[in-house]
C-alpha cells in the first residue's frame, strides 16, 4: 500500500526537468530601463528632426515624452511576451501604465513647485521677513504683517473648529443613533461641499447684523475658516474612531471603566495619529483661502496682532492684492506675490512636519517600539 502511494520520478538522471511556462525566462533587471531609454531617445530624435529649420521653442518636449512612453509600452510588451510569457508581458504593460499615470499626476505638482520657487526665491531676504508694507509704494517692503495674520487667524480657527469637530465625531461614533445622528451626518456632508465664499458671506452677515455693517477683523476671518474646517475634521475623525477595535472598548468596560473615560483614555489615544493628520488636512484646506478672508478679515499694510480690532492682513490676501494691485513698481509687486506664495507653501510643509512629529510622539507604544 505504501509503495503504491509513493510518487515515482520518471526523469532520467542527467536530464533537466521541463520548466514552467511562467518561469521559462526572465528579462534582466536593466532591460526595462534600457528599453525606456531607447524609446525616449528615438522619440526625442524624431521630434528634433521634425523641428530642424524652425524655432527651437517649437520643440514639443511633452509630446516627445508621451510618444516615447507609448513606444516603450509596445516594446516592453512584445519583448516580454517573447522572452518571458504572455502573463508576464501583461503584468509589465500594466506596471508601465500605472507608473505613467503616477508620473502624469506628479507633473503638475512638480511644475507648480518649480514655478513658485524660481519666481519667489528672489525676494527671500531679511527685509522681506522683517518689514511690513506700511508706507511702501514701490520696491522693498515685506510680509511680516501677513505672516502674523495668517498664523493668528488659522490658529484661532483651529482652536474653534477642532474641539467642535472632534466632539461631533465622538458623538456620531460612540453615542449617535437614529434621526439625530443621520441629520448631523447629512448637515456635515452639505457643509463639506459649500463654497468658501458662502462661509465668508455668512460670517460677514452675522457681524453686520450684530455689530455694524462694513466691519472687518481677524476674528471674523477665523470664524469663516472654522466653518470650513469643522466638516473636514468631523469626517476624518469619524472614520478614524470607527476603525478602533471594539475589543479595546469591551475590555475597558469589563474592568469597570465608564464610557467617557474609555473614550478619553483608550479610543482617542489609539487614533490620535490619524486624528492629527485629519486636523492638518483641515488646516491645509483653509490656510490658502482668499475669498472669505477678503470679506471678513480685510487687508491692511500695517502689522496688526489684535484679532478684534481693525482689519488684518493674511498671506493669501497679500498675494492676491500684490498681484492685482501692482502700483507703480509692477515687477516688485509681482515678485512679492510669488515670494508670499512660496512662504505659504513652506508654512504648510512645516505644519505637516509638525503633525507627523506629534503623531509619532503621542501614538500608542507597542512592544516593538
Helix/strand/pairing category: mainly alpha
What is the highest CATH level, the class of the largest domain?
Mainly Alpha
Mean pLDDT: 85
Instruction: Please bin the fraction of helical residues.
Output: 55-70%
Could you state the CATH homologous superfamily of the largest domain? MetI-like
Q: Which range does the strand content fall in?
A: under 5%
The total strand number stands at 0
Q: CATH topology of the largest domain, what is it called?
A: MetI-like fold
Number of helices: 13
Low-confidence stretches: 1-12, 14-24
Radius of gyration: 30 Å
Separation, N- and C-terminal Cα atoms: 55 Å
- Domain module tally: 2
Task: Describe this structure as you would to a colleague.
- By secondary structure, the protein is mostly helical.
- It has two domains: 25-122, no CATH class; 144-362, MetI-like (MetI-like fold, Orthogonal Bundle), CATH 1.10.3720.
- Helix content is 69%, strand content 0%.
- It has helices spanning 2-5, 31-50, 61-83, 86-120, 144-175, 178-192, 196-210, 218-242, 246-254, 259-286, 291-296, 315-324, 330-362.
- Helix 3 (61-83) runs antiparallel to helix 4 (86-120), helix 4 crosses helix 13 (330-362) and helix 10 packs antiparallel against helix 13.
- It is flat and about 75 Å long.
- The relative contact order is 0.10.
Short description:
This is Phosphate transport system permease protein PstA. The chain is mainly α.
Features:
single chain; 369 residues; mainly alpha; MetI-like fold; 2 domains; 13 helices; disordered N terminus; transport; membrane
Amino acid at each position: 500500500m505504501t509503495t503504491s502511494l509513493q510518487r515515482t520520478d520518471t526523469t532520467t538522471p542527467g536530464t533537466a526537468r521541463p520548466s514552467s511556462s511562467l518561469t521559462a525566462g526572465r528579462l534582466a533587471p536593466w532591460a526595462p530601463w534600457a528599453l525606456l531609454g531607447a524609446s525616449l531617445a528615438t522619440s526625442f530624435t524624431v521630434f528634433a528632426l521634425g523641428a530642424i529649420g524652425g524655432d527651437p521653442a517649437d520643440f514639443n518636449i511633452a509630446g516627445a515624452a508621451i510618444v516615447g512612453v507609448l513606444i516603450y509600452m509596445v516594446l516592453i510588451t512584445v519583448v516580454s511576451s517573447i522572452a518571458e510569457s504572455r502573463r508576464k508581458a501583461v503584468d509589465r504593460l500594466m506596471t508601465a501604465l500605472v507608473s505613467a499615470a503616477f508620473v502624469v499626476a506628479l507633473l503638475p505638482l512638480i511644475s507648480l513647485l518649480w514655478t513658485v520657487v524660481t519666481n519667489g526665491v528672489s525676494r527671500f531676504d531679511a527685509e522681506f521677513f522683517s518689514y511690513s508694507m506700511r508706507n511702501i509704494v514701490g520696491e522693498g517692503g515685506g510680509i511680516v504683517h501677513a505672516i502674523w495674520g495668517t498664523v493668528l487667524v488659522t490658529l484661532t480657527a483651529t482652536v474653534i473648529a477642532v474641539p467642535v469637530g472632534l466632539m461631533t465625531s465622538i458623538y456620531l461614533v460612540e453615542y449617535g443613533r437614529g434621526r439625530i445622528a443621520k441629520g448631523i451626518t447629512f448637515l456635515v456632508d452639505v457643509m463639506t461641499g459649500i463654497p468658501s465664499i458662502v462661509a465668508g458671506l455668512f460670517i460677514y452677515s452675522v457681524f453686520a447684523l450684530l455689530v455694524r455693517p462694513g466691519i472687518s477683523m481677524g476674528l471674523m476671518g477665523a470664524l469663516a475658516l472654522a466653518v470650513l474646517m469643522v466638516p473636514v475634521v468631523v469626517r476624518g475623525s469619524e472614520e478614524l474612531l470607527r476603525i478602533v477595535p471594539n475589543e479595546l472598548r469591551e475590555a475597558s468596560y469589563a474592568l469597570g471603566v465608564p464610557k467617557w473615560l474609555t473614550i478619553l483614555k483608550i479610543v482617542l489615544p489609539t487614533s490620535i495619529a490619524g486624528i492629527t493628520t485629519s486636523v492638518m488636512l483641515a488646516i491645509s484646506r483653509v490656510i490658502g483661502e482668499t475669498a472669505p478672508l477678503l470679506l471678513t478679515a480685510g487687508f491692511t499694510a500695517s502689522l496688526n496682532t489684535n484679532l478684534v480690532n481693525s482689519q488684518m492682513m493674511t498671506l493669501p490676501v497679500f498675494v492676491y492684492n500684490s498681484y492685482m494691485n501692482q502700483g507703480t513698481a509692477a515687477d516688485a509687486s509681482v515678485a512679492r506675490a510669488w515670494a508670499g506664495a512660496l512662504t505659504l507653501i513652506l508654512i504648510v510643509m512645516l505644519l505637516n512636519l509638525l503633525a507627523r512629529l506629534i503623531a509619532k510622539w503621542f501614538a500608542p507604544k507597542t512592544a516593538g517600539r
